[in-house]
Amino acid sequence: MGSILSLLVLSFGLPGLVQAQEVWAKVVDATNDRPIQDAEVQILYSWGELVTAALTDRDGRVFLKVPPGGYRIAVDRLGYPATDTLGIHLAPGQNLTVQLKLQPEAIELEGLTVLVEEIDWHLEMAGFYNRQRGASGFLDPTRDPGTAAPVLGLRGPGTPDPVPVGFRSGSRTGGRGA
User: Fold this and answer.
1) What integer pLDDT is reported at residue 20 of this predicted model?
2) How far is the CA of 173 from the CAs of 59, 151, 177, in angstroms?
3) CA 75: distance to chain centroid?
4) 85-115, pLDDT tens digit by residue?
5) Neighbours of 71 (CB within 10 A)
6) Residue 69's beta-bridge partner residues?
């Protein structure tokens, strides 16, 4: 019997009990009345429990449906303080259109430290830093553990003859262009 009564109420509907109330909201910047896109608009019960939420479109508008009752509207968007309205009561059959103005607020960030290593562009152009990083293995100190300084012209035990800069391997007769 209880399920038949429930079915009748849902089928024929009692005015306002089953009908959802419409809430149309527009969120704008308080300083210039421009719409705020992607602001989260939440409808909360008066005690704070979330009923429904949506993001505003590019025109700052959002449309939500709720059953009759007491609510608060909360709006949150990066660059604006979170805003919460006073209590709103929607009676059966009552709809609400509201414009919410948000005051911009600067966001304070933690300090940032940037460390920069000065690089001599002449050495960079000559490929020194690539060789130092071990890209070619030429100045890679891990290549020969017997020496602490595998630098051009210095030889440790077991290190091959270094190739002078400006010469191609296997040729000691040319200069830069040879």
Assistant:
1) 80
2) 74, 21, 11
3) 19
4) 878 898 998 899 999 999 999 888 888 888 8
5) 24
6) 90
